[in-house]
Amino acid sequence: MRVILLLLCLPFFAGAQVGTWRTYTDMKAVRDITVSGDGIWAATGGGLFHRDPDGQFSRFTNVDGLSAIEYSAIARDVDGRIFAGASTGMLNVLDPEAGWYAVTDIARTTEILQRGITTILMQEGRAYIGTEFGLVVYDPLRREFGDSYQKFGSLSAQIPVSGILISGRRIFVTTSEGVAYGDLDNINLKDPENWTSEAIGDVKGIAELAGQPVIATQQALHRFRNGGWEEFLTAIPGGEVLTLESDGDDVLLLTSEALYRVDGAAMVTMIGESIAGGQYPAGSEFTDVSADGDALTVASNIGVATFEEGQPWDFEKPEGPNSNFIRDMTVDADGVLWAASGFASGGNGMYAFDGERWTNFTKSSHPEIVTNAITGVAADNSGAVWCATWGSGVFRRDADGTVEFFDTENVPGFPGVPGGPDFAAVQALHFDERGNLWTLHERGPANMLGVRTPGGQWQFLSDPSLAVDLEVVTLDVDQFGQVWSVIDDGDFRGVVLLDPNNTPTIAGDDRWTRLSATDANVLNAYQLVTAVAVDLLGDVWVGTDRGLRTVFNPREPDRISKTCFNTRCNIEGQYITCIAVDPVNNKWIGTKEGVFVLSPDGSEIIAQYDTDNSPLLDDEIQAMVVHPGTGVMYIATNRGLSSLATPYVEPVTAFEELLIAPNPFHPGIDERVMIDGLVEGSIIKVLSVSGDLVAELESPGGRVGFWDGRTQNGEYAPSGIYFIVAAAPNGSQAATAKLAVVRK
After folding, report:
1. What residues contact residue 56 under an 8 Å CB cut-off, 6+ apart?
2. Its pTM surpasses 0.85
């Protein structure tokens, strides 16, 4: 019988189960906050977080009850409910008794294209929700929407609402064109004529000052008097004006650089210090402010901070990667995930994840790495991580934190770029089976490839028949030591193959082959080759903008097979973005429409994941890598990192002890029993105490296998003691374990 391999719910390794998805996002870019006695709630570009009064953080993402990942507004009502609005229009509500639930009405509105939620005001048990098309009212007790207002007086229809204030029996809304107000006792505010508007320009914030509505533009503060607006403060302090917040009899004015208090006499006092100061990361900006009693809390693009007199702003954020963009990943010998975030215009350093905690490496936190533009990562057998950079060559970071650079200053011939010979832009790097480090150089004026031997000798190479100064993508190395480089340049698009003839530092015996992307008899792409990966059998898999291609004999590189065009495996026409190979030789194919998992020979789709059928953060995949010791597949998108615990774990080389869980096993209650400790391709049999065959199982091919508790006849096995026998395919070794089956 066939064992189901995916989406199981069994203990598998510390902290995860097979089929478990997790989400890892950067939450430092805070967009909106609400503060009360139970702490700080924040809406961020990577989900929501809560910081309790003791300083402990809780993260909430799409695997924790939310329906989106990019949140733009958050509010709390007097009963402790949390209302979070997303840029998609999705509204999530945390009920203290029932947990999270989703309100989909706004997001599903098809008549309106721009449906994002911009702000939320809680008043008298109702949520007044500002959107990109107007204002809607939601009743959380009835869980239903009331009125929707899409035009305010003479302001444009379906204009985004930036702020809401209820003062007395009037409701005010602010927009990029001006401000409008209506009477809450008017039963027909849907009629634009029942709103009074003033086209005063882009209004940044609204609040109450001594009981009077006040609005802020970039140039001035205006106070509402006698049914109209008069200038109240004309000298706005430096920085872009962001918002206003009521604080007792005063109002708080927040700009991108600083926080100010404004009193009824238009006296302005700065609170704390400017975030534009040198002690804060470059580009730091405030985003929101909240007043709760005597506590003032500010939000920024680097976290949240509470004001303390005489102290600098101490920004905090939940643990996570330093940004939501990942270009490349690797897993080192200790099982630590390393991720690179760099690209041509910059980057956010690199991130390390040990399965529980993240460590972020930037040039400000770790000056020894010099740059944040880290474009590629690769781990060697010593525990060191090697990093490609955009402009600073290559560096090695040893396990003890020591960093050594290799660039134009200390490696003769190290390529720079035209017009910048000291600017060494390395796009990718990869170790071959012999321990040679291969580097791929962007726009090298003389050489495209570099190689460093285990002994430390460098050599730089290029196809003499091909133009130099090429724009490059990525590379991999096959079992014969041949280097497959993906090129995307006006002079050539496709794959350049180098056979160094087992002498990588001797250029005279090199053989070069070019595979054009658009050659109908070879790669047959529309325009581009996008990815390349070598599998466990030595076959080379090439991704294009038109589908997947396979070279089953790398010694004959022009004999290329079109992969996955039959009815069981039809991904022809997909734009391939990346390829990963798991420990049992399945192919994980990243595309612009999600992830396809192919069988080892590529003839069958084992699984397919996208945002419709899984918690995947985005359908366009940037990079993937598997942790061979746990089977966790990490999937990077522009919106953050997802992981999926799979059963595809690196097998043991020899049987020692089979681990069975759960034991005892309750068929029909426990979904599966896991068998851990298998050699590659193990044959698994379940035997009764009398030696009768109860079931024979197919293993995934790696370290673990599963039994659903059914016999060969498809019935649940009766209570009793059973023997699990696992044997190597050739019968050279075997292992046995006991399993108790308890039927209830």
Report:
1. none
2. yes
CA distance 269 to 253: 10
Phi, psi of 568 (to 5 degrees): -85, -15
Q: How many domains is the chain partitioned into structurally?
A: 1
Question: Per the domain annotation, does 690 fall within a domain?
Answer: yes
The Cα 54–Cα 28 span in angstroms is 19
What is the number of other CB atoms lying within 10 angstroms of the CB of residue 343?
15
Residues near 135 by Cβ (< 8 Å), separated by ≥ 6? 128, 129, 148, 149, 161, 164, 173
Residue 192 in 3-state DSSP? Answer: helix
At a CB cut-off of 8 Å and minimum separation 6, what does 732 contact?
none
Q: Which range of residues forms the domain containing residue 719?
A: 659-741
Nearest to 439 by CA among 449, 447, 431: 449
The pairs formed by 362-365 with CB atoms below 8 angstroms and a separation of 24 or more are 362/322, 364/281
pLDDT at position 7 is 30
How far apart CA 489 and CA 495 sit, in angstroms, is 11
Report how far residue 68's alpha carbon sits from residue 111's, in angstroms, rounded to the nearest whole number: 21
Where is 290: in which H helix or E strand?
A: strand 286-292
- Per-residue pLDDT at 565: 61
In this predicted model, what pLDDT tens digit does every residue of 50-100 receive, in sequence order? 999 999 999 999 999 999 999 999 999 999 999 999 999 999 999 999 999
Q: Quick check: helix, strand or coil at residue 164? A: strand
DSSP 63-125: TTT-S-S-EEEEEE-TTS-EEEEETTS-EEEEETTTEEEEE-TTTT-SS-S---EEEEEEETT
Strands (E) located in 665-727? 673-676, 683-688, 693-698, 704-707, 720-727
Is residue 214 in a domain? Answer: no
Contacts of 393 (CB under 8 A, 6+ apart): 405, 406, 407, 408, 411, 414, 424, 426
Q: Which two tokens stand for residue 82?
A: 């949390």
Q: Residue 91: inside a domain, yes or no?
A: no
In a domain, 672, yes or no: yes
